[in-house]
Specification:
six-stranded mixed sheet, two-stranded antiparallel ribbon
């Protein structure tokens, strides 16, 4: 298929915008001719020149041109196509695609050209907002990809955000209420706050606590929704069905009473009614959560601490929480308040799993009615075999043991391969990835 002259021109204009984007991202001395050509393209489309300026936030552009917001949402989920002679689909080289290229360039440049050097609270807030628009362009909610992904785009965004937080003079920002108010809590920010909280006092500590509280509440709302939406169909067969009409199993009742059919009366005489079983577990289940609070497990620790508080609020669930490094700490009295739990944790240092196991095992009253979730990267070094011995003993007793390596949000998580293989051999493979996996496992057992 031969492109018309104006189609080829549109294709060239779109290509100019993408060349400029690549030059901006990978070559600090981008070509002035590309800048000038891109400006001419954008102005010809009737779009604001601010789309080409990475120092102007997406929010600022939208304040002046609110109609663009609808175009940005879902921008990267689909591409416009037109049919060609062989009935295949190719990108349409028209004005709409050129316009799309200009908008795509804006969100990509603002998010991925994060620069170097010190970062202010305003710059972090602006980047977080721009990243939120990038996530919306991909069809997600603001912050959703950063919360979800240890890999892919979610992991890349979370890593960028973490780098910005590390480049910020956080203590100075926290000491100024006006600057602190510009911060949007994120996993990267919460990690820094938890690491540094012992060095904070007064206004700075109060602002840090407020940010941690906000983040905990936001994540709790997301996880609570996931717990409510996760459906499990396990029926407790040990509980007799309720003998009410809505539970009557009519087909089974007829089948079981067919021998009582009377040809003379043309009637089926029923000796016994059969009911469907609908009852679920009634005995309180015990959930024991053991969290490795060494520095490598921050995201999983935060997510699972909040998740434990949600399950602690369910009826018939008895939740215990233990955090450990080289010592073990019983946090059960605060399990319903993850904010208080996080304030009592101390990130960093080594870890001693057998010490935590010694605290956890006495909490097992009825093994068959207990699930133990162990969150760690399982790098125990000379303590590996003693910890595995304890885990195997717990598993043999009938406890449902769930090892958790990473339930995300930022960066790759490494689990000790030696432990990973032994858990697989034990029939208890390590859970990693999205926290929905753990939600499903726990809800299946506990409800």
């Amino acid at each position: 298929m031969t492109l018309h002259h104006h189609d080829r021109a549109d294709e060239n204009r779109r290509q100019v915008l993408y060349w400029r984007l690549l030059a901006r991202l990978f070559d600090p001395t981008e070509q002035p001719t590309l800048e000038a050509a891109s400006l001419a393209v954008v102005e010809d489309l009737g779009l604001p020149a601010a789309l080409l300026d990475p120092t102007v936030s997406v929010d600022t552009v939208l304040q002046r041109h609110p109609s663009l917001a609808a175009e940005l949402r879902g921008l990267l989920t689909t591409a416009e196509h037109v049919p060609v002679a062989d009935d295949t689909a190719t990108p349409k080289p028209g004005p709409a695609e050129v316009r799309r290229a200009a908008l795509v360039s804006k969100v990509l440049l603002n998010v991925f050209a994060a620069g170097t050097g010190p970062v202010s609270a305003s710059q972090l807030a602006r980047w977080q907002s721009d990243a939120g628009w990038f996530e919306q362009a991909l069809g997600a909610e603001p912050g959703e990809l950063r919360r979800q992904g240890a890999t892919g785009l979610g992991g890349a965004l979370a890593a960028l955000e973490g780098d910005l937080v590390r480049r910020m003079h956080l203590r100075e920002v926290l000491a100024d209420p006006a600057l602190a108010s510009r911060l949007t809590p994120s996993m990267s920010l919460i990690e820094q706050l938890l690491r540094d909280k012992a060095n904070l006092s007064g206004v700075a500590l109060a602002n840090a606590k407020a940010l941690i509280r906000r983040f905990v509440d936001e994540v709790a709302e997301v996880l609570r929704t996931q717990v409510e939406q996760t459906s499990v169909g396990t029926i407790d067969r040990s509980v007799p069905p309720k003998r009410v009409f809505r539970n009557l199993d009519l087909d089974r009742t007829i089948w079981q009473n067919l021998t009582n059919w009377s040809p003379e009366d043309q009637r089926l005489y029923v000796d016994r009614l059969y009911y469907r079983r609908t009852a679920r577990r009634t005995t309180p289940a015990r959930l024991i959560v053991v969290v490795d609070q060494s520095g490598s497990m921050v995201d999983s620790m935060v997510n699972c601490t909040i998740l434990a508080s949600i399950f602690a609020g369910l009826p018939k669930v008895d939740v215990h929480l233990i955090a450990y490094d080289t010592r073990a700490l019983d946090l059960t009295p605060w399990v319903r308040d993850p904010f208080e739990v996080l304030l009592r944790t101390k990130l960093g240092g080594g870890n001693d799993g057998p010490v935590a196991m010694a605290m956890a095992r006495p909490k097992i009253a009825e093994p068959r009615n207990t699930v133990m979730v162990w969150i760690s990267d399982f790098y125990e070094f000379d303590r590996s075999q003693p910890l595995l011995d304890g885990i195997e003993a717990v598993h043999r007793s009938g406890v449902r043991f769930i090892p958790v390596g990473s339930v995300n949000s930022s960066g790759q998580q490494s689990v000790n391969p030696w432990f990973r293989q032994r858990f697989k051999d034990l029939g208890t493979p390590v859970i990693s990835g999205h926290i929905r996996k753990l939600v499903f496992e726990l809800k299946s057992f506990l409800t």
